[in-house]
Amino acid sequence: MSGPAQPAAAPSGAPEATVRPIALGPLQLRTNLFLSPLAGYTNLPFRLTVRTLGGLDLCTTDLVNVRSLLRRNHGAMQLVATCAEDSPLAVQLFGAEPEEMRDGALMVEALGAASVDINMGCPVDKVVRTGSGSLLMTSHARAAQIVAAMASAVKIPVTAKMRLGWDAGALTAPDLARALEDAGAAAVFVHGRTREQGFSGRVNLAGIRAVVQAVRRIPVIGNGDITTCEAAKRMFDETGCTGISIGRGAFYNPWIFGQITRHLNHGEEPVHPGFEERVAVMSRHLDHMISFFGEDRGCRLFRKIGPWYAKQFGPTRYFRQRIHNFRSRAEFDELMHGYREWRRPFVDERGELLPRYAPDPLRSSFMVDEADDGSEGLPGAIAVPKGPVAAW
Ligand SMILES: Cc1cc2nc3c(=O)[nH]c(=O)nc-3n(C[C@H](O)[C@H](O)[C@H](O)COP(=O)(O)O)c2cc1C
């Protein structure tokens, strides 16, 4: 059984917005910064890449269908695949039956995961139709039964990731979080949007604050739209959350965890890496993709990842024209060799962009972009479903 969660060990007098160790029930973590699951993106190759850049401890797998996992379906086993360098790892399960979720938690524990998370936020119809994902936010008794069944079966912490509620008329997250705490949850992760909102609008920090106020002891981890150090500070300051979790912002900027740590704890402004470091990290990411998926599939999947790294390279016409076709590590090396030659007129003797070609790190990569409604939002590089959420 997961023991009662202890409040995060904030040094006395420390401001809320600090990066510090945190406990999820019995699990001691080095930092209260988390990587949010992004199905199809935050796979083992990405997790390995971002972990080496520092500032991160617990990462989470993509959501895994508990039935598929219990049947040891190949796809599910690939989603939970991990290695020593990918530790500590939480496995996120979705399902609606307490017994299945209990068995899933036991299997996850036996596989060596540090914690098991329950998806209570996925808005996609395919998941909701099974009675799981965000539908659990409308049935506190069922959600609590699931947590209780899992928490009484395993020693690792059981956590839940939820949204604010089904829609604006049913902001159930505070009551749900309290019910899950009573049932044995060691922490809750809260994405500050409703199911109906999908990914539109801005994250509602007051909604997350209401969850923080509703629970008694367990940590609440705030999530949504954290793409800068300032947004991280705002999440801490305005919600009183104990930790923060970052999804899309980490894909646009894998250095974000280290930058936030240094900013919040030492007041340092983020130092954005130069070209050579970005290329080195991009190449490592490709290597991890190839070892995990094989050369052909790894390269094909990387065609949509390379362009994110390239957003900070400055002029990239040569790179962009070729990245969509490469099929092997050797072709990638050729591409990069050709690109370095092509890029020469734009750089100084150190290989760094001449100032007039330098991209604005806040505009063109991962940070601020104009959303449809004219507000600041996240650029659309990671496809999120659009239109009425019922049609997803
Ligand atoms: C492409 C994509 C896939 C996602 N997959 C999952 C998932 O598997 N499990 C989950 O709990 N949330 C998932 N989410 C939600 C994110 O974890 C996160 O709550 C949301 O993107 C808001 O945080 P962010 O603004 O930091 O990205 C996904 C989001 C996106 C955009």
Which runs of at least 5 residues are low in confidence (pLDDT < 50)?
A: 1-14, 363-380
- Tell me, briefly, the overall form: globular
Strands of the widest sheet, in order across it, are 3-10-9-8-7-6-5-4
Predict the CATH topology of the largest domain. TIM Barrel
CATH class category label of the largest domain: Alpha Beta
Bound molecules: flavin mononucleotide
Q: DSSP helix count?
A: 16
Architecture (CATH level 2) name of the largest domain: Alpha-Beta Barrel
Taken in chain order, the helices and strands follow as EEEHEHHEHEHHEHEHEHEHHHHHHHEE
Major sheet size, sense and barrel closure: 8 strands, parallel
Strand content: 5-15%
Q: For the residues shown, what is the average pLDDT?
A: 90
> Which structural class best describes the helix and strand composition?
alpha/beta
Separation of the first and last Cα atoms: 37 Å
Number of domains: 2
CATH superfamily heading of the largest domain: Aldolase class I
Strand count? 12
Q: Rg, please?
A: 21 Å
